[in-house]
Amino acid sequence: MNTELRGYLFEMFYYSFALARFSLGSKLLIAQADAIFASPSIIQCKPQSLLIAVYRIYRLSHNLQSSKSADVFSVRQELLLLDQELMACHSHLTHDTTMDQEHLNDVITSNLYSLACRIHIRALFPPHGSDDNDTVHSLVDEFINNLQHLPPHSPSHNILCWPLVVAGLSARNSAQQRIIVAKLNNIHEEWKSAVFSKSADFLREQWRRDRDMRRKLPITSGYEDSFTLDGLTWYQCPVILA
Description:
68% of the residues lie in helices and 0% in strands. The longest helix is centred in the N-terminal third of the chain and has 23 residues.
């Protein structure tokens, strides 16, 4: 058996299934495959494990719709525990200029997914004070810092749509927004995939709407009017499914 090919196919499945489930929610009738992700696991600093984290976040955020306060509390605690696991994972993924390009690319790509997961978890909860907002802003800052250290022709470019959109939805600084859109446009030029240019257009529209809303009333979440607990709204699905 070709173990390298087997590993590649598993990673392709994890990537496609986790992000499709995240985007489409219960509208995607592939529940039979849920069992593959159902076994409890501690998040490890590996691509498959981080994609499992994406899936777990979807499942838990979906459960936040429960009308039972005890269930909501349990889900919230599990999400916060997952956030701690991701934070511990991220602390082990440091990069420096002495790394070879392949290792550097792997570390930064894992960091981008880990940070996007944490940003998304925080975005699920309305901020209760400046500390919560500062946490999200700090995570977005760290995401941008990692993004700027990614090798210019990274082989991971074609799988960065999800973390870029997730981080972009919580980016409130115009400089950060320009960096994220520029990266999406650059990847579009490299891969000739409209998913990336559509993602850039989508973020610009969301930021415009956010600015308009902030003129009228304070926004409590970076996902307000753009995210639902049952998956993203239909017009966003092509954006996320890069």
